[in-house]
Amino acid sequence: MLNHRSVLLLIGILLSLHMQAQGYDTASVSSPISSNYLETVNKRAGQLEQKLDKQSEKIITQLLKQENKLKRKLARKDSTAATAVFGDAKQRYDQLQQKLAGTPKLKQYIPSLDTLSTSLKFLEQNPQWIAFAKDGPAKLKEAMSKVNGLQTRFQQAEEIKKFIRERKQYLKEQLGKLGLAKELKQLNKQAYYYSAQVNEYKQVLKDHKKAEQKAIELLSKTKLFKDFLRKNSQLASLFRLPGDPNDPTAVASLAGLQTRAQVNGLIQQQITAGGPNAQAQFSQNMQQAQSQLNELKNKLSKLGGGSGEELDMPDGFKPNGQRTKSFFQRIELGANIQSQRSSGYFPVTSDIALTAAYKLNENSMIGVGASYKMGWGQNIQNIKITHQGIGLRSFIEWKLKGSFWMAGGYEMNYRSGFQRIAELRDRSGWQESGLIGLSKVVDLRSKILKKTKVQLLWDFLSYRERPRPSSILFRVGYTF
């Protein structure tokens, strides 16, 4: 009688033989798809689904609120015109909500989402790939549900952007007749940031986790999955992908289309007929076309491009690139150090600080930090590590130009040596520091020290403190 271990071994051998028959190199891996892939997809899809839900609900509420504000403002001048322009606004937004409730499947093409969806469909039809995954079928079903829900949320976002486009055009025409077109500035900003946030979520899908990379890489080695992807992916439904030349469907889809050889032959005929300089002229034209195409792609990228509505920004409006990022993505951790030589009162010390800055936008940040003052002794012949104080910091920085920043801050420092934490409760031992100065980011061409920052600061409150600390501070910092 076979025991449990023998049964598993037999199943593994049969599964391995089946996978080899499908063109998979079983010698390169130790096991099929693990449950980590399904759990990772489920978690990420669920998180993005919730975020899209929140953002979509938020933009609809904001836009309706903004329209009501414009209606009240117009009503103070012309109540009849206000009713004519905004009278059916509530009804329009209710219709949008009804449309979103019945949103069809995803119509736009998102490569990363297509890969995730197709891989899950493949695993559903080929359960042997998750045979050893704990609760594989249940986790697969849950992951597919989350990914389908995410596809629906992205399509709902497209419907909302389409509604916003149409609504903006309508209001622009109506308010333009009344000389109030400029009042749409805030509405345009809200619409822009919503579109940018949706694009940010699409970018998140591109950053595959380790479990996702391993699973997709493993599946991509098999002919079975490649064939499935070619026939069942969203891309395949949009454009018939080339496949087996003996496939009647593929042959029918390519009927009447010119082959690459035919196109190349036609180009060569035209170049030959053009004379001796035709080849050089052709190459020059191709380079110019490629340059113009790259320039257009760069412009679209800088503007969050992709859709036309994303380029429609208010005059003079400079988007805040940090606004679409999460709270933790806007946090910049850092550390800095400053040393002071021995004086009549203070020994040789080094202030070691840890900081956390919150980016308000690309050109300014605020932050807090804490420092520890370590004493080294009076000189090299008398080295002694001592606790010489601690400090609490707050700061703000503004970007001036290039890599130069204006820096300011307020600090409280305990500058006396201490043996126990209880000694820090003595308020008389604390001194205030008011700092202002310059920071410069230095590129040291090192991955570890890439964001090195040097600071030169003036403590304008140092003159009233006794004993008086140094009024000029030089700090070297690093950000992570």
Automatic annotation (TrEMBL):
Signal peptide start and end residues: 1-21
Coiled coil among keywords: yes
UniProtKB keywords: Coiled coil, Signal
Coiled-coil zones: 279-306
Annotated protein name in UniProt: Outer membrane protein with beta-barrel domain
Lineage: Bacteria, Pseudomonadati, Bacteroidota, Chitinophagia, Chitinophagales
